[in-house]
Design a protein that fits this description.
Elements: E1 11-13, E2 24-29, E3 37-40, E4 46-49, E5 58-62, E6 67-72, E7 78-88, E8 91-99, E9 108-116, E10 119-126, E11 130-137, E12 140-145, E13 149-153, E14 161-164, E15 170-176, E16 182-187, E17 193-198, E18 203-210, E19 215-218, E20 224-228, E21 230-234, E22 239-243, E23 250-256, E24 259-264, E25 268-272, E26 277-282, E27 289-291, E28 298-301, E29 305-309, E30 330-333, E31 338-341, E32 345-348, E33 355-356, E34 370-373, E35 378-381, E36 385-388, E37 395-396, E38 410-413, E39 418-421, E40 425-428, E41 435-436, E42 449-452, E43 457-460, E44 464-467, E45 474-475, E46 489-492, E47 497-500, E48 505-507, E49 514-515, E50 529-532, E51 537-540, E52 544-547, E53 553-555
Parallel strand pairs: 1-26
Antiparallel strand pairs: 2-29, 3-4, 4-5, 5-6, 7-8, 8-9, 9-10, 11-12, 12-13, 13-14, 15-16, 16-17, 17-18, 19-20, 20-21, 21-22, 23-24, 24-25, 25-26, 27-28, 28-29, 30-31, 30-53, 31-32, 33-34, 34-35, 35-36, 37-38, 38-39, 39-40, 41-42, 42-43, 43-44, 45-46, 46-47, 47-48, 49-50, 50-51, 51-52
């Protein structure tokens, strides 16, 4: 049990630079008061609700493109939202305090609301206000708030079990990494603060009475973080002070894959990269909520505003074989099945009849070697899976079509215009001599798209139709501005012209070169690059020229 820690990690203060894809930006202004309730799904959907006294309970949703009011849940009473959790893009919860002044003056009840794919409904009404909620699946839900009580449902909210928690009088935050790893931060008698843990059988005190640690976040690895007068970290055996942040008061914490974020009362957001804490941004609003659950973005709730850090959007599409956030140069040698990734590895996987389809098929943040065998529809991902999907004549076009950060097998059938995404959808779009150009044209997930050489038409399903390019061009869509989404773009080998719609035109490369845009510098922006198979030259504009691979090798870099 940790009562007071003397050592702390140093804080490095960084000056803010020019806006880029890896910096915080205002996503929306919802008006009203603080945003305590903020939940991001592993994909493109995000929910937020202002905690407005006397409001009608407004819940807003971000669909990957725009924010919109999704529902009003208090037509007769007044209520404030103080907690939110999203399991995926179709299951989310909100925890609230309901003031029934019109019926029972001064009474505060607790409400848990549930979004089930299409609409919000109230799961339960509890005898005390609740301000936090967590779910490990749609049936297993926890909520807590006023009093020393937590409620648990095993049947999707139909029935609830009451748990009495030791020492605390109010739970301010609840977080989990599965049914047997839950953490709660709460206040006891007077001004004492406690951190509690649930191991699947009982709630026990882990620290206390301590400083004002009023927020807690759990990481999937079983570690946990707590914010208040500094940031505490639980390493699996004990809590210790990670940093005191120079005495700043921390309202919210978030964690993911060894990283952590802390938001302060004064509007600062700090980042822990596994070694050091740094000041990432100063927004100005009091940060009341942070969420790092989505595969790429980090979200923060302030004074009625929602902020977004799009630091990892490009990771959805770059070929990053070691997870460091940059595109890695690599080749696949048909004659031997060799995968050679520069500076990283050489493995043999596949054969001369296979097409390389690298991707992040298990959602771990790294690209894996993978092949598609057209003769029988085999998809083989090294160390992950083997499945059959597609037929002879199909063109493999894998991608993150659900927005959950995971690559899924997909094929385009030119003879009929069929797009088939395994486990997701089958639709018809394009055909004949159209070139398949699926991509992340709205950032959050991949959309089917085609380029029609005969007219220069780019048609992205549900997104846009524009004319850009000609029969002399190769397609090279990408995020050349760091805005977090692709633009139609072409490479004209005959002249070396690169043209991205709405951007500057540049000349780089020559006849025979293959366009290989990617984020080779790790700055969140695609770089112009070519691979020259005759000599094995990789040339990245303004960055580097290296020789790797040669004649007959297929580049496996984007």
């Amino acid at each position: 049990m940790t009562r007071k820690i003397l050592a702390a990690t140093a804080i490095v203060f960084l000056a803010a630079g020019p806006a880029a894809a890896q910096e915080w930006a205002l996503s929306t202004d919802l008006g009203g008061s603080y945003i305590h309730a903020l939940a991001a799904a592993p994909g493109s959907r995000v929910w937020a609700a202002p905690s407005d006294p006397g409001s009608l309970g407004r819940i807003f949703c971000f669909d990957g493109v725009d924010w919109s009011l999704q529902t009003l849940v208090y037509p007769e009473e007044h209520g404030q939202f103080f907690g939110a959790f999203a399991l995926d893009g179709e299951h989310a919860w909100m925890a609230s305090e309901i003031s029934r002044s019109a019926v029972r003056r001064g009474t505060i009840d607790g409400g848990v609301f549930f979004f089930d794919q299409t609409a919000w409904s109230q799961l339960t009404n509890l005898p005390a206000g609740v301000n936090s909620v967590y779910a490990s699946d749609p049936d297993k839900i926890w909520t807590a708030g006023r009093g020393n009580l937590a409620w648990h449902s095993e049947d999707g909210g139909a029935t609830w079990t009451t748990w009495s928690l030791p020492e605390v009088e109010t739970i301010s935050s609840l977080s989990g990494a599965g049914d047997q790893n839950l953490w709660a931060a709460g206040m006891g008698a007077g001004t004492t603060y406690w951190l509690l843990h649930f191991d699947g059988a009982a709630w026990t005190v882990q620290t206390g009475p301590g400083e004002n640690f009023s927020s807690v976040a759990a990481a999937a690895s079983g570690s946990a973080w707590a914010g208040g007068e500094g940031v505490l970290r639980y390493d699996g055996s004990q809590w210790s002070l990670s940093t005191d942040l120079g005495g700043l008061n921390v309202n919210a914490v978030a964690a993911r894959n060894g990283e952590a974020w802390a938001g302060t009362e004064s509007g600062d957001i700090f980042h822990y990269n596994g070694t050091d804490w740094t000041l990432q941004t100063t927004i100005g609003d009091s940060i009341r909520s942070l969420n790092a659950a989505a595969a790429g973005d980090i979200w923060a709730g302030g004074d009625g505003k929602v902020y977004r850090l799009s630091r990892s959007l490009s990771r959805r599409w770059i070929t990053d074989y070691d997870g460091d956030g940059t595109s890695d140069i690599g080749i696949f040698r048909l004659s031997s099945g060799l995968w050679s990734i520069r500076g990283l590895t050489r493995v043999y996987f596949g054969s001369s009849t296979d097409l390389p389809v690298p991707g992040d098929y298990d959602g771990d943040g790294t690209t894996a070697p993978a092949v598609f065998r057209p003769e029988n529809g085999l998809w083989a991902v090294r160390g992950v899976t083997r499945v059959y999907f597609g037929s002879p004549g199909d063109i493999p076009r894998p991608g993150d079509y659900t927005g959950d950060g995971t690559t899924v097998p997909a094929v385009y059938r030119p003879s009929s215009g069929l797009w088939a995404v395994r486990g997701v959808t089958r639709l018809y779009f394009g055909g004949g001599f159209d070139i398949a150009v699926p991509g992340y044209y709205r950032g959050g997930l991949a959309d089917p798209g085609i380029f029609r050489y005969s007219t220069g038409l780019w048609a992205i399903r549900g997104v846009t139709r524009v004319y850009f390019g000609s029969t002399a061009d190769d397609t090279a869509p990408g995020d050349y501005t760091g805005e977090g989404a692709w633009r139609p773009a072409v490479f004209r080998p005959g002249t070396g012209l690169w043209a991205a719609r709405g951007m500057t035109r540049a000349y780089f490369g020559t006849a025979g070169d293959q366009a290989r845009p990617g984020d080779y510098s790790g700055n969140g922006t695609d770089d112009i690059a070519v691979f020259r198979s005759t000599s094995g030259l990789w040339a990245v504009r303004g960055l580097t020229r290296v020789y790797f691979g040669g004649s007959g090798d297929l580049p496996v870099t984007r």
